[in-house]
């Protein structure tokens, strides 16, 4: 959770002048989902919409919240210079939304007049930095692998990619009018060459997105045309035109092609090359980063609160909101008044449209809450029907009963609570005696009981105000100007470092500008130092081959942009490190022997500045004091003129640019004593050196004892006299083996200390898990994929100075890293904190830090010891947990108050006549029923099943998809279509039939009016952008199965599909056009062919003719989850034929499914692609559970395999159609699986290198022992509208 520190601001104050907000409802556009397009005058309970009374603070002079175009450079609503004491909550939430733009890819093949010289043109009309990634096939090539084209065929500015492809940037089309936007690549070739086909895909370098044809590469065949080649374009030529001057060119239709066909020597038809033009629609989806500021102000006069929300989202934003009166987070509608433009939504929530800021760069709103409010709940709705929530849950803002400065419990509070206890004891004893003696009237008893209730409520209020509802919110800021002793190796000791670039950051040419835009966000996240890239002119674009040290115009930006960036970081309280590359320097000129070792610029050294023991550069200096870097001349730091010049240069950078310290590159190359001299000369706030060499191995296996390795790093630090720290390469290397091999015992040395530099000299250790060399696009030593958060859970809770890598921060790990940073700062963990290792075993590592934080990583179990200390879970994720201590004295005191109060309240309640029935109906029993209303156990179900309003917001389900179908939208944004009849007409379906809805060409969310059994008389062919949502009704489908062919964006949920037959085919409707002829169906319950983005969830599938689910012919981005499979032989096929090579691109997730009741095999059977089979429950099998051929990658993670009793059928796996020597090289891996009743999983191959996309889409696996619970609701759910499902 991203937070803004409050500590350094609480002495400021401000005044809210609500009257400054002039709200004109006529400016707003009403959402189509609002209950009325007219302004409503009354809401529930007669509350009126209108202006609410502002609360004024007489202590403060006129400071105003305003939303003015002149308020700030960013045109956001800002606070004037002072911040109020009455602000009890403030937080900035990062928001992400998907912006989609429709466009098209255009492909044209055009021949010249001489019939030999041809040109392929690929165009795109979407904005972006487009690159064509392409290669060729040659005649007589075997297989489908690409080759590089001949040099003469490559357009200008093309770059070779390894040995198989070319990348060519798109350029503005010179053949169209200026008003149009078309970028294109032209590839010229000779038809007499040996080129058989040109293959390509498009890449948008700005977003990193790849665009293919039906999930596969585009292919333009130049010989041997075949209509069976599904990814070939131009096979069916028709009449079309290219934009611009070529628009008069008519292309031959396919009816005229026969004359160009010849029969080759094998009797096959061979077709001569033909001109064509085709267009293919694409959708460019980009992630837009926005933010939302929320702060709460306490009105001291009225004890009410004002929630202020502002965001930089430029579109209309509706806040869908309510309140909670206790910690249950249950939505309720508050009493009025309400902000203007507020509507009641189905008697369950309010909807308020935020007011636009002047200039249109965002919007804001103010929400008044009464003193009974415990929490403010809301989600955001945009005008494109996009919903934004907080990591799958509603935004929840706790409303504290006390101001921040009053949170601390003191002696006065303690005395006060004692008085409450004594008063309650006196009253209850009085009523007890009177009840026994029956001498008091009923009215007197009621008076005493009312007094007890008031005291009980008061005690409970004290108790609630003593504990933060959301502990991550309150963060103690570390003032960077505090009087802590500063060292050039440690800074304040509380530093948190961000590497602010990666290996590709230079490519935009504007990295300094781009990074400056993120400065405020980085400060909010809690970073105190940012390491910037090398600033100097360099032979290499990345900056690590410097030449003129005083020329600060680099590929990252110019010197003015660098100064602006550093200034901006200083304004937000972040210091900066310059990347000083002083081990080597590239020369300007050659000597008389043609060797590059003579320098120009201000530092015009000769070859005396170069070490003499590197033969590549023939230096005349002394021998090197370290290891030589052979790619460039190594500088001889023993020369006094060199040290003087470098010292002066570092001082100049500190003064001219404003750097606060240094990251020193390749310090293995020169003695640490020279670093001491440079540090003393430049006086940095913080400095760290990169001392990277190999760890110790024996016969290829890492040694447990890495003392020799860390000793070399510590020796270098000692040589600097402790003026610089060093990256803890030892810890990173040990981490690799510990996580990859599940050997967490490696994280403790023989003395029970951390085994890296932080175990010996923690204040000088800069811990990290990745940087621009080890990760990014270089990947020299990449951290184990998918396990990065274990690394951050370690370094952000341990001593040393932690360093976070840019690529990890701006990824799916952002919120988890932010939460760990907040925890580190809240608990004041610093570079000298203490560590007690509590457990270091095969599958778990646990440690106690500073006696107040306990962390564990690894799949094994560890919980902090109970005793006098109380622990609360603060942060958790995939295979890691972090607990923090709870103040036992304070909690004990108020727990006693609460216990005492509630106990006597129950005694008093028992004395009240006539209340027994009320308690039974609405008290403890009803609470128990509420708690048991939702049984969601896995990550998908938890996203929606516990929400009682799921039926009112069905389309929110699309936000819950996980696995490789992530991003599937189904019918989101479309109308709701209700199936009213079970009848079916394959050729002419009528409105109200299921078939009518699924064949429409527009997005639809399809629901069912009532329970029904639909007996399909032919297969049901589904069009793109559909959701078939059976929740809330009992829907069975029999007869024909569900078929998807070459479509996208399909969600199917909560259907019982059984007794499916092979259907004869005939005239069947598949779009909203006329019916077309289709061959007989395969008899699959669900068939997915050539599709992308398909999610099948919570279906019950049984008794099919062929398969229960088949995913074939290049389908990809598929998730099959929470289904129940029964009574079938060949259950699931992922890839139908070893000859379907298009399935190499298939990626599918099989998660949380239950296979039981006579499922024989294929659960699933895989070919070619990449498959995550995670947390499924295999309740015995017949032949085998998982199988495959054609070298698929299968990751089996956290599954429960209960083997059949037959001793001959214990093997989980079957490898088919390949000799054992080959099949045992396939990457079939097992992790966290539970093998029961003698089950055998014979793993093979190696852990695959995961792409960034795969890492981001894969579901985090729970241990196999948890699967029974995770799959307990597999299959159709008995959902009822108005209740959790």
Low-confidence stretches: 1-83, 236-270, 403-416, 432-440, 460-484, 888-933
Structural class designation: alpha/beta
Radius of gyration: 34 Å
Average pLDDT level: 80
**Shape annotation:** globular
Major beta sheet summary: 10 strands, parallel
- Beta strand count: 71
Strand-residue fraction?
Answer: 25-35%
What is the helical fraction, as a range of percent? 10-25%
Taking strands numbered 1, 2, ... along the chain, how are they ordered across the largest sheet?
41-42-45-48-53-56-60-64-67-70
Cα(first) to Cα(last) distance is 28 Å
Can you count the helices? 21
Subunit structure: Monomer.
Domain Pectate lyase: 1011-1207
GO molecular function, one term: pectate lyase activity
Protein name: Pectate lyase
């Amino acid at each position: 959770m991203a937070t803004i520190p409050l500590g350094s601001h609480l002495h400021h104050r401000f005044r809210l002048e609500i009257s400054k907000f002039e709200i004109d409802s006529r400016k707003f556009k009403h959402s189509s989902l609002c209950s009325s397009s007219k302004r409503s005058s009354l809401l529930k309970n007669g509350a009126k919409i209108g202006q609410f009374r502002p609360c004024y603070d007489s202590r403060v002079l006129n400071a105003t919240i305003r939303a003015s175009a002149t308020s700030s450079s960013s045109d956001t609503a800002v606070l004037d210079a002072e911040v109020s004491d009455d602000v009890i909550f403030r937080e900035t939430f990062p928001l992400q939304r998907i912006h989609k733009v429709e466009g098209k890819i255009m492909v044209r093949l055009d021949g010249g007049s001489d019939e030999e010289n041809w040109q392929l043109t690929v165009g795109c009309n979407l904005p972006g930095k487009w690159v064509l990634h392409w290669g060729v096939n040659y005649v007589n090539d075997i297989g489908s692998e690409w080759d590089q084209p001949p040099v003469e065929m490559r357009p200008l500015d093309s770059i070779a990619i390894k040995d198989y492809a070319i990348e060519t940037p798109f350029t503005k089309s010179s053949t169209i009018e200026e008003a149009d936007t078309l970028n294109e690549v032209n590839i010229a070739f000779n038809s007499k060459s040996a080129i058989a086909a040109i293959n390509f895909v498009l890449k948008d370098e700005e977003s990193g997105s790849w665009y293919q044809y039906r999930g596969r590469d585009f292919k333009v065949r130049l010989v041997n045309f075949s209509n069976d080649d599904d990814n070939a374009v131009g096979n069916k030529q028709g009449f079309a035109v290219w934009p611009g001057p070529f628009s008069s060119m008519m292309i031959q239709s396919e009816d005229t092609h026969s004359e160009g066909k010849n029969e080759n020597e094998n009797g096959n038809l061979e077709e001569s090359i033909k001109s064509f033009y085709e267009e293919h629609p694409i959708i460019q989806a980009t992630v837009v980063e926005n933010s939302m500021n929320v702060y709460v102000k306490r009105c001291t006069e009225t004890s009410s609160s004002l929630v202020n929300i502002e965001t930089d989202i430029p579109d209309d934003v509706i806040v869908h909101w309510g309140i909670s009166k206790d910690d249950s987070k249950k939505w309720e509608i508050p009493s009025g008044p309400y902000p203007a433009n507020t509507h009641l939504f189905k008697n369950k929530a309010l909807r308020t449209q935020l007011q636009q800021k002047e200039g249109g760069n965002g919007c804001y709103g103010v929400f008044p809450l009464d003193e009974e409010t415990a929490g403010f709940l809301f989600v955001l709705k945009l005008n494109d029907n996009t919903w934004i929530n907080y990591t799958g849950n509603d935004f929840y803002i706790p409303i504290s009963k006390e101001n921040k400065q009053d949170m601390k419990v003191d002696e006065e509070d303690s005395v006060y609570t004692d008085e409450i206890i004594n008063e309650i004891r006196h009253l209850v004893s009085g009523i007890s005696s009177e009840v026994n003696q029956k001498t008091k009237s009923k009215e007197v008893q009621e008076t005493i009981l009312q007094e007890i209730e008031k005291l009980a409520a008061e005690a409970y209020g004290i108790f609630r105000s003593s504990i933060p509802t959301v502990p991550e919110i309150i963060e103690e800021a570390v003032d960077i100007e505090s009087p802590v002793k500063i060292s050039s190796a440690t800074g304040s000791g509380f530093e948190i470092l961000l590497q602010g670039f990666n290996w590709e950051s230079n490519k935009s040419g504007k990295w300094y500008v781009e990074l400056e835009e993120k400065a405020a966000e980085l400060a909010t996240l809690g970073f105190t130092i940012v390491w910037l890239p090398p600033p100097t002119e360099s032979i290499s674009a990345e900056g690590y081959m410097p030449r003129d040290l005083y020329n600060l115009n680099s590929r990252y930006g110019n010197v003015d942009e660098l100064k602006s960036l550093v200034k901006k970081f200083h304004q937000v309280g972040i210091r900066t490190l310059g990347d000083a590359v002083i081990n080597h320097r590239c020369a300007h000129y050659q000597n008389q022997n043609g060797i590059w070792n003579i320098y120009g610029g201000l530092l015009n050294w000769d070859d005396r500045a170069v070490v003499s023991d590197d033969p590549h550069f023939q230096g005349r200096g002394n021998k090197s004091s370290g290891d030589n870097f052979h790619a460039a001349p190594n500088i001889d730091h023993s020369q006094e003129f060199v040290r003087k010049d470098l010292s002066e240069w570092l001082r100049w950078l500190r003064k001219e640019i404003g750097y606060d310290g240094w990251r020193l590159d390749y310090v293995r190359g020169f003695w640490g004593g020279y670093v001491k001299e440079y540090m003393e000369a430049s006086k940095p706030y913080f400095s760290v050196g990169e001392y990277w060499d190999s760890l110790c191995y024996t016969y290829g296996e890492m040694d447990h004892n890495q003392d020799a390795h860390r000793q070399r790093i510590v020796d270098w630090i000692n040589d600097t006299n402790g003026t610089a720290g060093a990256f803890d390469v030892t810890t990173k290397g040990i981490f690799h083996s510990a996580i990859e091999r599940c050997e967490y015992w490696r994280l403790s040395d023989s003395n029970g200390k951390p085994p890296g530099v932080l175990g010996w000299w923690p204040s000088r250790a800069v811990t990290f898990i990745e940087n621009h060399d080890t990760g990014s696009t270089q990947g020299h030593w990449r951290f184990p994929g998918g396990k990065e958060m274990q690394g951050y859970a370690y370094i952000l809770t341990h001593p040393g100075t932690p360093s976070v890598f840019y690529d990890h921060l701006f990824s799916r790990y952002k919120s988890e890293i932010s939460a760990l940073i907040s925890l580190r700062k809240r608990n004041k963990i610093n570079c000298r904190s203490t560590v007690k290792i509590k457990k270091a075993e095969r599958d778990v590592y646990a440690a106690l830090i500073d006696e107040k934080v306990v962390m564990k990583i690894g799949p094994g179990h560890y919980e902090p010891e109970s005793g006098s200390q109380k622990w609360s879970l603060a942060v958790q994720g995939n295979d890691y947990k972090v607990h923090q201590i709870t103040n036992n004295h304070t909690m004990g005191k108020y727990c006693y108050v609460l216990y005492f109060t509630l106990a006597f309240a129950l005694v008093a309640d028992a004395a009240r006549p006539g209340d027994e029935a009320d308690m039974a109906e609405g008290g403890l029993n009803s609470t128990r029923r509420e708690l048991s209303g939702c049984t969601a156990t896995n990550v998908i179900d938890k996203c929606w099943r516990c929400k009682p309003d799921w039926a009112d917001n069905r389309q929110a389900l699309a936000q819950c998809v996980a696995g490789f179908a992530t991003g599937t939208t189904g019918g989101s944004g479309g109308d709701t279509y209700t199936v009213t009849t079970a009848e079916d007409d394959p050729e002419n379906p009528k409105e109200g039939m299921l078939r009518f809805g699924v064949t429409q060409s527009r997005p639809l969310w399809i629901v069912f009016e009532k329970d029904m059994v639909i007996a399909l008389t032919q297969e049901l062919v589904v069009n793109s952008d559909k959701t078939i949502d059976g929740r809330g009704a009992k829907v069975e489908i029999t007869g024909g199965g569900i078929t998807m062919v070459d479509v996208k964006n399909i969600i199917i949920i909560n259907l019982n599909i059984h007794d499916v037959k092979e259907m004869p085919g005939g005239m069947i409707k598949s779009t909203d056009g006329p019916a077309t002829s289709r061959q007989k169906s395969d008899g699959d319950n669900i068939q997915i062919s050539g599709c992308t983005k398909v999610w099948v969830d919570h279906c019950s599938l049984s008794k099919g003719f062929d398969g229960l689910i088949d995913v074939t012919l290049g389908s990809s981005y598929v998730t099959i989850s929470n289904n129940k499979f029964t009574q079938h032989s060949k259950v699931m096929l992922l890839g139908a034929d070893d000859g379907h090579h298009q399935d190499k691109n298939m990626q599918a997730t099989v998660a949380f499914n239950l296979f039981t009741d006579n499922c024989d095999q294929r659960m699933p059977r895989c070919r070619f692609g990449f498959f995550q089979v995670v947390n499924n429950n295999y309740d015995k099998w017949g032949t085998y559970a998982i199988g495959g051929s054609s070298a698929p990658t299968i990751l089996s993670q956290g599954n429960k395999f209960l083997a059949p009793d037959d001793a001959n059928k214990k093997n989980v796996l079957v490898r088919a159609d390949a000799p054992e020597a080959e099949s045992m090289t396939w990457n079939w891996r097992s992790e966290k699986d539970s093998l029961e009743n003698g089950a055998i999983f014979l793993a093979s191959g190696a852990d695959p290198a995961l792409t960034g996309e795969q890492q981001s889409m894969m579901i985090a696996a729970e241990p196999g022992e948890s699967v029974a619970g995770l799959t307990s609701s597999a299959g159709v759910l008995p959902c009822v509208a108005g209740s959790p499902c």
